[in-house]
Hints:
- By secondary structure, the chain is mainly α.
- Helix content is 82%, strand content 0%.
- It has helices spanning 12-25, 27-45, 53-82, 89-98, 100-119, 123-131, 135-142, 146-157, 161-181, 184-191, 197-234, 239-272.
- Helix 2 (27-45) crosses helix 11 (197-234).
- The longest helix has 38 residues, at 197-234.
- The mean pLDDT is 86.
Amino acid sequence: MNSPRGEKLVSATELIRESLSMLYVARWKIITISAPLFLLSLASTVFDRDITELAREIISYGILIVGIITQLSLVSLAIAYHRGEEELPMESFFRAMGLVSSYLAIFVLLFFSTFGGYIAFILPGIYLSLALAFAVYVLFEEGKHGYNALTRSLFLVNGRWLEVFLQVVAFGIFSSFVSLSTLLLPLFFIIFGLESSLTFYLFGVLTIGVSSFFLQPLSAFYLYGVYRELVKLSGEASDIEIISLEKRLKLLIYIGVLASISAVVAMLIGKFS
Length: 273
């Protein structure tokens, strides 16, 4: 039996408080999971002037690969802690590694569907950018892959898009305040005339550290909290609802694929003409 759609999601304040609490408990595991990406990001930005072009290119690819694995590992850890379970960093890592290919398939379909949405009068693209954001949690939690994970995410957000949007905006405001706070240390140095190359390095370490060890993990925990609320209030989808959502999603994916192919062909024609 479906839960009443009139019920509201838990407030963003409560979700942030809950996520912060779990983040504190899992702090050492988060540091272990996020450390490789932090070090690579540090090398790519703060110490970029001190490395060769080849090293810079290797680090860029490393950030891409490690970034995906880190994000998926944090999602796995967030799910475990929301369930009240203990999960070691290596368990999160291996679970993430096992789902990398499925995540990439979802990402490709997500790109084509949102791109197709933006081509189809922009607003569908904006809607889908948020409505499909929970597909990765569906992948981990419900074992649905690819197209099915996207359809499930779309169903969960259907009828609650504005609520979810406000939840995401609230989290974005909180994250912005945290990010702006990292300016206080370098600002202190500048005000007192102590700015130097050391100020630049400190600012880089602080900014990347806050992002890697706090904001990115917090985002994984927070969005999973929103996902759980959506699951709790949405109930089971009827066959008619699923078929309707599938048709819309397929249409936008086809539009996105055709638009992408057209763009590539036009670029090649312009290049060789």
